[in-house]
Amino acid sequence: MKIMYWIATIVLCAIMLYSAQMYFFKTEMIRGFFESFHYPTYIVIPLAVAKILGIIAILTNKIKWIKEWAYAGFFFDLVLASLAHYYAGHSVGLSIYALIILVVSYALGKKIRP
Fold it and tell me: Band of the pLDDT at 28, cuts 50, 70, 90?
């Protein structure tokens, strides 16, 4: 279980890190996506920062309630991303897979890292 937890958690954090770096380095492209989804574009950079902080909170596991908020934030981010891509007619593959990985990481983390 410990190995599965760490695999799921590292994969989840890698997906979020990939997303955050896209927000930082391909900001105009991401803003274009946000506009097509009718999301406000001013949240692109703050969302990238929140993703980085969430990764840190989950991996360090220092303050439990912050880790819980990080998982919740990632959950809402992935649900909204999945819905936005679905309604825009895009593939929802990565966001749905990430959502499943998040659930696995969270559930196993409750047993492994209480």
Answer: very high
